Amino acid sequence: AEPGEVLVECREVAKSFGGVRALDGVSLRIRAGELVGLVGPNGSGKTTLVNLLSGALRPTSGSIEVAGRDIVGLAPHRIAHVGVSRTHQIPKPFESMTVRDNVAMAIMFGRSPRPLGPAREEAEACLDVVHLRHLADARPAEINLHERQLLEMARAIATKPKVLLLDEALAGLNPAEIDAAVAVVRRIHATGITIVIVEHLLRVVNQLATRVVVLNQGALLADGDPRTVMNDPDVIRAYLGR
Ligand code: ADP
Fold this sequence. Notes:
Layout: E1 6-17, E2 20-31, E3 35-39, H1 46-54, E4 61-66, E5 69-70, H2 76-82, E6 84-86, H3 99-108, H4 116-129, H5 145-157, E7 163-167, H6 175-190, E8 194-198, H7 202-208, E9 211-216, E10 219-224, H8 226-230, H9 233-240
Parallel strand pairs: 3-8, 3-9, 6-7, 7-8
Antiparallel strand pairs: 1-2, 1-4, 4-5, 9-10
Helix pairs in contact: 3-4, 3-5, 4-5
Bound molecules: adenosine-5'-diphosphate.
Adenosine-5'-diphosphate binds at residues 17, 20, 22, 40, 42-48.
């Protein structure tokens, strides 16, 4: 994608679970090259939005386009082929496979499928990006939480996404690990992948994001550059005033 090209276009997206309106008419445009911090109090709809963008959920109403294609109703693997990739809060790698082969599998079934041999070579390059190449022969059970989350990112970039959705990818890490993970997110972004990161650590969002989008009770509360958004009285109230 050319820098500045519209990659994600959500129009009036709503999602209800029974009587709960998790998202209530969110319109959002994300351009190639952005690194968007998606924040908001617990229950504000962040994970629901990620699930809608990746096809894990289907909106109750509204439209979602990725790279100009309507993705509503497409299966998650089809949306992956359009160029959306995501990480999960709780990584679930294939425990019986090596770290390398976990990434190779993602490549083999990705946008440009290839046999195991070349996929393994490409997997090493993905592991390089997340600084995990030295653990290529390990099994997931032998690596720690931080490393498992880096593996999750390596698997997510293996499909060569246009947009990478990172859902709480730093949860449970210690400060040194957070710094390391932030550096990895920067490296991924520098390879040309547009990123949406859901993160409750505002310090991290401020460090990383080119733009911050705040959800509150399923609606867009603020959207703009990190400094302006974080000083917005409505945003401060949403976080602290209840
Ligand atoms: P966040 O990620 O910002 O914490 P969520 O998107 O997880 O928020 O949740 C938004 C709202 O939708 C919450 O009220 C939550 O309880 C509700 N919700 C999310 N997923 C489901 C579901 N599968 N079934 C019922 N309610 C849900």
